[in-house]
Design brief:
Length: 200
């Protein structure tokens, strides 16, 4: 049996996935989670073979949750996403994710992908892989990336400065530079753009 946990912040989708995959004779759905943090704790509790994670979840997203799960368990991670951006694919692969599929994948096909990944294969949706080859590199410096990553987590400038060990003015300068590079109206928009492109 392939032991599975599922995480998705949309209860209807999570429940449907769990119900459909549980019908497969060789898949056992051990638990469900509604966000990234609970996905990690569910994986630590159940020690599944596969963690099936939504990419877009509040707080800790699917890639960050995958990184924690891979570091702390023997589970293999498959990411599902509605908005499959090539940058997110790069982030997922660098985190050690073994499967990356759109949410539009039929349940039977998803079950087959889970079997293949459980058997040691890597599966990346072909259209996502092709798009990733043409994706632009991030124009952000490492410090600008840090500032936007912490902005995306909801931290105010003062806390970001403390977290990075920088003066508030320096953080403002990095934020302003990132806003200009990404043609954004403000720091939060720049952070959202960078996240959507898989740069943070």
């Amino acid at each position: 049996m392939i032991r599975l946990v599922i995480a998705d912040d949309e209860q209807l989708i999570r429940g449907a996935l769990a119900a459909l995959l549980a019908l497969e004779p060789d898949i056992d759905v051990l638990g469900e989670a509604q966000d990234g943090a609970s996905a990690v704790s569910t994986a630590l509790t159940h020690r599944p073979d596969i963690a099936l994670l939504d990419l877009e979840m509040p707080g800790m997203d699917g890639v960050d949750a995958a990184r924690e799960i891979i570091a702390q368990t023997d589970a293999v991670v498959v990411i599902v996403t509605r908005h499959a951006r090539p940058g997110a694919l790069r982030r997922a692969l660098s985190a050690g994710v073994r499967g990356f599929v759109p949410k539009s994948t039929p349940a039977g096909e998803l079950a087959d992908i889970i079997r293949r990944v459980a058997a040691g294969e890597r599966y990346v949706d072909a259209s996502l892989a092709a798009a990733a080859l043409t994706e632009d590199e991030s124009p952000l410096t490492p410090r600008e990336t840090d500032v936007l990553r912490l902005t995306d987590q909801g931290l105010p400038l003062k806390h970001i400065a403390r977290e990075l060990g920088l003066a508030s003015g320096t953080v403002r300068n990095h934020a302003s530079s990132a806003i200009i590079k990404l043609h954004a109206d403000d720091r939060q928009t720049a952070a959202r753009i960078a996240r959507e492109r898989g740069w943070i």
